[in-house]
Structures are given as C-alpha cells and as structure tokens.
C-alpha cells in the first residue's frame, strides 16, 4: 500500500552504513533514510544488524505522525484517535510478550501493511487479508468502523503475529526462517518478513518477491532503522 500524500519532516539525518561489515563496526543511526539491501539478509551481505535497529520508543516516535494521519491520506475513513493509537501500542507490547516476537518487528510490519490505520480496507487476492497487519484470513478488522474497539485492535495484532487457523503469522514465519539461519538473528527477521508477504522464499535473494512485493524485506529492514517517508531506493 502506498501513501497518497507526503509529509515534510524536519529531522537530522545520520549517515547509514550500507556496505558489508562485521556487526561490531555498524553504527546505530535511526533516521528517515532508505538504503538498498541485496542478497540473503545477513550482516555480511550489508543488511543491518539488530544492534543498529532503533529502540521501540524511537521507532514508535518516528511513525507516530504517520499513524495520526494515514487513514485520511489514503481515503480509508477518519484518522486514528489518540485512544486507538495508544491501543495499537498496548496490543503490540502485549502480543510481543505473549509470542516472543520483537515488538519493533511487529511495528514495522504494521506500518508496511497498513501505515498504522486501524480502518485499513481488507484486501483479497485469493486470500482475505484484513486489519492492521493484513493477516491471513484473521477475524480482527475495523474497516469502516469508528471507533475501532480495543479488542479488535488487539485481535488484528494477534492475528498477524500469532497467526490464524487459516495461515501463519510472524511467530511462525520467524520460526521457519530461524531454522535456516540457525537462530533468530536479524537475517531471520528479514526472511520472516519475506515469508509473511509472499509465502515463498529464496534465501539467497530476499528481494525475490515471486508474485508479491519485491522490496518487502528491504522496506522492513529500513523501517527498523527509522525509515518512514523518504523516497525508496530499492532496486531488487
């Protein structure tokens, strides 16, 4: 889903390290900057290590202005209320604790799938994908509903993270990806994003989207280091 308007954000930009380097040499730099990553998702291939991801509070703060306006920008109904936004945060925190999936990753997928709009429309390209995380035929959905109840916001986050009877959530895709990389390091999270979006994966090229969004893993990696609205530099 693409943002229909742009937001001018005045922020200090920090130089990001895009070349392959050991994790210990990567510098933490949370900023609205997009770096083009290629290959298998590993630090050796130039992808960001978890040590350079923003903290949850930093990433939440970077995305808050979008969540406050994204429904209206996209024609999806009334913008999120302060209470609805607070309920998104609470749901991410609770579901992260329940599933062991990093809350920063859940937030990145929320922003990737719905720009954080609780009233995001349901998509259906053969599989029904509702809610904040466009889950696999989940029950959480607030399309056209204002206000969006707290229990529905929780359900949307839980469907996308813990999975549904119909399909995997982030917990399952992360488990699958971790088996390939030998643990839940940063590469496993980027691969888990690929699996969540496309259901298929080429572990040597995470920008192979098959019939889905080619730049999905690249986008998520950038969201985890602070990217929000600057132009995408993805070249899969």
User: What is the count of β-strands?
Assistant: 2
Q: What separation lies between the terminal Cα atoms?
A: 18 Å
Strand content: under 5%
What are the low-pLDDT stretches, counting only 5+ consecutive residues below 50?
A: 1-25
* Rg on CA atoms, Å: 16 Å
Mean pLDDT, nearest integer? 90
Q: Identify the overall geometry.
A: globular
Q: Which class do the helix and strand fractions yield?
A: mainly alpha
Within the largest sheet, what's the order of strands? 1-2
Q: What is the overall number of helices?
A: 8
Helix content: 25-40%
Q: Largest sheet, if any?
A: 2 strands, antiparallel
Order of helices and strands: HHHHEEHHHH
Description:
It is a single chain. The protein is an all-alpha fold and 236 residues long. The chain contains eight helices and two strands. It has helices at 56-67, 70-74, 82-99, 103-114, 150-162, 170-181, 186-198, 216-223; strands at 123-124, 128-129. Strands 1-2 form a two-stranded antiparallel sheet. A hairpin with a 3-residue loop joins strand 1 (123-124) and strand 2. Helix 1 packs parallel to helix 4 (103-114) and helix 3 (82-99) packs parallel to helix 5. The longest helix is centred in the middle third of the chain and has 18 residues, at 82-99. It is globular, with a radius of gyration of 16 Å.
Draw up the topology in text.
Elements: H1 56-67, H2 70-74, H3 82-99, H4 103-114, E1 123-124, E2 128-129, H5 150-162, H6 170-181, H7 186-198, H8 216-223
Antiparallel strand pairs: 1-2
Question: Tags for this entry?
Answer:
8 helices, mainly alpha, two-stranded antiparallel sheet, disordered N terminus, 236 residues, single chain
């Amino acid at each position: 889903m693409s943002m229909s308007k742009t937001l001018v954000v005045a922020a200090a930009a920090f130089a990001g390290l895009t070349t392959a380097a050991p994790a210990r040499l990567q510098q933490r730099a949370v900023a609205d900057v997009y770096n083009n990553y290629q290959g298998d998702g590993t630090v050796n291939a130039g992808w960001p290590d978890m040590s350079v991801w923003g903290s949850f509070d930093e990433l939440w703060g970077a995305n808050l202005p979008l969540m406050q306006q994204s429904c209206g920008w996209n024609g999806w109904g009334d913008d999120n209320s302060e209470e609805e936004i607070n309920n998104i945060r609470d749901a991410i925190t609770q579901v992260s604790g329940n599933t062991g999936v990093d809350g920063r990753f859940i937030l990145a997928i929320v922003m990737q799938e719905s720009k954080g709009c609780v009233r995001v429309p349901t998509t259906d390209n053969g599989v029904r994908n509702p809610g904040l995380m466009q889950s696999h035929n989940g029950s959480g959905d607030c399309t056209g509903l204002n206000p969006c109840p707290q229990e529905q916001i929780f359900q949307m986050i839980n469907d996308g993270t813990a999975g549904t009877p119909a399909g995997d959530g982030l917990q399952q895709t992360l488990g699958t990806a971790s088996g390939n990389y030998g643990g839940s390091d940063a590469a496993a999270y980027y691969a888990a994003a690929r699996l969540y979006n496309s259901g298929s994966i080429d572990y040597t090229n995470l920008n192979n989207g098959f019939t889905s969004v080619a730049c999905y893993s690249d986008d998520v990696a950038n969201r985890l280091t602070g990217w929000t609205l600057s132009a995408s530099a993805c070249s899969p």
